[in-house]
Amino acid sequence: MLANWSEILEKIFSYTLIHDGFVAAVPIFYACMCAVISRQANIVNIAAEGILMFGAFFGFAASYFTGSWICGVLAGMVIGVLVSWFMGKAYLNYKVNIFVVGLSVNMIAASGTRFLLNTIFGANGNFVSDKVQAIAKVNLGFLNKNPVLASLFSGYAVTDLLIIPLVIVVWYMFYKTVWGLRLRSVGLNPMASMTAGIDVKKKQMQALLLSGACAGIGGAHLSLGYSCFFIEGMSGGKGFMGMAAMQFGNANPLAAGVGCVFFGMSQSVASRIAPWGIPNQFVSMFPYVATTLVLAITVIIQRMKRRREESALVGKKA
User: Where would you find the membrane-spanning parts of this chain (predicted)?
Assistant: First the structure.
């Protein structure tokens, strides 16, 4: 019995888990960057899930009609920017509650993509076509002789590899540029930023547009990265996982990336334990349980930190 369990664990936690976990984490990374950028401007963008869905559908449709994955990714990015522009107008110009706007986007994305799938492609539930071009893969042929190195460093889609410089660039923009300094000041204290001459609404709109572009690319990656099909609800909660990772990292791109990797690994582990007799319900639940645990731990740590700061402040006053 022990030998069987050892064999099972060896197959689940093999070196290929790193590749599969990273691949599973990529859409969460894009959603997380969406949440991180908007959060730095003091906007909680819960529409990442809906933008992923829009990006997935329009990216798929653009690739179908043009035969180009590049057009598909660009279409996903453009639709993400347009949705975020709509959200910005509603929130900043007409003072609509951002949570209501975000929830509306998520609901429209779920039903709207279903309607468009039926209207444009005459399909229900899912659609597959040979006309759709998948995102190009980066294969390093000289590593094929070593299966470990080939698994770790080869066979990734272009949009997989794009996430690494994206996270670094976002971090650099936040903490090493004047634009990032002003954006963070808007997020920390809008009134003080306004007094300093910063256009708060302009900065928040810029953050929303950039966040929408990130989520839109992530959506296109969902439908074009490793498959050439669209399925209703294919975002599968990844937008909310990205928000959880953002909260875990306190809106720091690098720290939030750790949360994304954890969620990706949990999804990969869940898919690997399915063939070993584990009920499907528990397998499907595993990534969301991991998300809930991370959020709970993050809230506890933040509360403890806040209490220590309050205690230190009271001690100074005394």
Answer: 12-36, 43-61, 67-86, 98-117, 153-175, 282-301
pLDDT at 302: 79
pLDDT at 300: 85
What the block records as the tokens of 124 is 């229900």
pLDDT in tens, 182-236: 999 999 999 999 999 999 999 999 999 999 999 999 999 999 998 889 999 999 8
Q: Name residues whose C-beta falls within 8 Å of residue 235's C-beta, 6 or more positions apart in sequence.
A: 27, 49, 52, 53, 56, 219, 222
The pLDDT value given to residue 306:
82
For residue range 72-116, what is the model confidence (pLDDT) as tens digits? 999 999 999 999 999 999 999 999 999 999 999 999 999 999 999
CA–CA separation, 76 and 246 (whole Å): 22
**In a 10 Å sphere around its CB, with 0-12 CB exposed, 13-18 middle and 19+ buried, how is residue 259 labelled?**
buried
| SS3 assignment, position 156 | strand
pTM to 2 decimal places: 0.91
Q: Give the Å distances, CA to CA, from 172 to 112, 160, 176, 193, 254.
A: 36, 20, 5, 21, 10
Work out the angle at residue 32's Cα, subtended by the Cα atoms of residues 291 and 149, and round it to the nearest 5 degrees. 85
- The closest of 252, 166, 165 to 216, measured between CA atoms, is 166
For residue 156, is pLDDT > 80? Answer: yes
Question: Per-residue pLDDT for 274 more than 80?
Answer: no
Spatial separation of the C-alpha atoms in residues 263 and 248, rounded to whole Å: 11
Dist. CA 281–CA 116, nearest whole Å:
30
| CA 206 to the chain's CA centroid | 19
Burial class of residue 299 (count of CB atoms within 10 Å of its CB; 0-12, 13-18, 19+): exposed
Strand residues in 35-113 grouped as ranges (E): none
- Asked if 60 contacts 72 with a C-beta cutoff of 8 angstroms, the reply is yes
